[in-house]
Amino acid sequence: xxxxxxxxxxxxxxxxxxxxxxxxxxxxxxxxxxxxxxxxxxxxxxxxxxxxxxxxxxxxxxxxxxxxxxxxxxxxxxxxxxxxxxxxxxxxxxxxxxxxxxxxxxxxxxxxxxxxxxxxxxxxxxxxxxxxxxxxxxxxxxxxxxxxxxxxxxxxxx
Length: 158
What we know:
single chain; Tumor Necrosis Factor Receptor, subunit A, domain 2; 3 domains; two-stranded antiparallel sheet; 1 helix; mainly beta
C-alpha cells in the first residue's frame, strides 16, 4: 500500500502546479500572466516568454490573466434607467449609475449599478421627509393633522 502511494505521488507531478501567483501553467511550463489591460497573444514556450497585447476597444481585463480574449465592456442601459458614470478602459469595466430621478437597487461587487427604479412620489396629504438619492428611495411621511390644505402640507419651518 505504501509503495502504491509513493508511485501515485511520483506520477502525479502535473497535478501540482509549481508556478507562482504571477504565472500560469500550460503544457507543463510556467508562463508569465499578462498585466491588467492586456491579454495573451501567444503562450510561452521553451524558447519565448508569454506575448501579451492590449485589449481592443470596448473590451477590458482588470486582473493579471492568462486569457486569450478580453472581457466585453458593460453597456449602461437598464431599460433607460442607467447612465455611464465612468467609461470602460482597457483595464476597467464601465461603471453605471442611475439616471436623475432613479435609485440603484442592484449593484455588482465593483460598485456598478445593474438595475435602477424611479424614486417614489409622495401622495396628497404627504410630504417629502427625505429626498431620494442615488442609492435610496424618497421617504414620504403623512402631514400632521391640522397642516393640510387641499391635500398639500403646510409645514411650519420656524
